[in-house]
Q: What sequence folds into this?
């Protein structure tokens, strides 16, 4: 099993540009989570999906952030327009859940985003 | 005030020592996760528990719901255990609260 796959691994962009982060969960998993990690704020949950449906997006910081899961094997996190304070490592994780974020999660390697 | 407090923030131990990392939370929870983040940045989920105790190899996690406290123990610590350990509480509304992490260094 390839595990959770994220792309790109590194992204450097200029302020104002659109950024799209991608995640492929582990096959068969039905829950997907997007996290952000910074030195200042630590790890934060942005949004999670259950069976492709967003369950809780209360962690999404602003309207500039949006996430989609068009099918069980793919999710995107988009930032438009990007700002320097969005610089962080973004992790995607997946799990096989039965109605809540209560199951072991498997994390992807993360995307390190730098907004200049 | 943080909903989840971890202690200590930093910990240095000699190889072979027994290690305890503590996590206290103030929210009502449905589950508590222990995560391990390696120096390279990768994150591994160690345990998810809602009561009692779980053991995996040299790692043991316990939780006391009444006291709102969880501990992660490492027996016979090894340099490869050096990492940041993060606890995350999930409340009954499915919201996550993360501790700031405990940075562990095990010296050979």
A:
């Amino acid at each position: 099993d390839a595990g959770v796959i994220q792309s790109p691994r590194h992204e450097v962009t200029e302020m104002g540009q659109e950024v799209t982060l991608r995640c492929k969960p582990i096959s068969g998993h039905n829950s997907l989570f997007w996290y952000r990690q910074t030195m200042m704020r630590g790890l934060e949950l942005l949004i999670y999906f259950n069976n492709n449906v967003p369950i809780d997006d209360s962690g999404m910081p602003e309207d500039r952030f949006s996430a989609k899961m068009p099918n069980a094997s793919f999710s995107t996190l988009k930032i438009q327009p990007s700002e320097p304070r969005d610089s962080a490592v973004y992790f995607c994780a997946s799990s096989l859940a039965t109605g809540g974020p209560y199951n072991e999660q498997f994390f992807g390697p993360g995307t390190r985003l730098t907004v200049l | 005030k943080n909903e989840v407090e971890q202690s200590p923030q930093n910990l240095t131990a000699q190889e072979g020592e027994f290690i305890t990392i503590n996590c206290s939370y103030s929210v009502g929870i449905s589950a508590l996760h222990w995560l391990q983040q390696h120096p390279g940045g990768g994150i591994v989920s160690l345990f998810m528990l809602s009561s009692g105790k779980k053991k995996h190899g040299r790692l043991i996690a316990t939780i006391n719901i009444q006291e709102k406290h969880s501990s992660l123990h490492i027996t016979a610590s090894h340099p490869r255990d050096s990492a940041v350990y993060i606890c995350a509480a999930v409340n009954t509304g499915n919201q996550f609260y993360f501790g700031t992490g405990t940075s562990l260094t095990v010296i050979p």
In short: The radius of gyration of chain B is 13 Å. The interface with chain A takes residues 30-31, 33, 35, 41-45, 48, 50, 86, 88, 90, 94-96, 98-101 of chain B (CB under 8 Å). Chain B is about 0% helix and 60% strand.
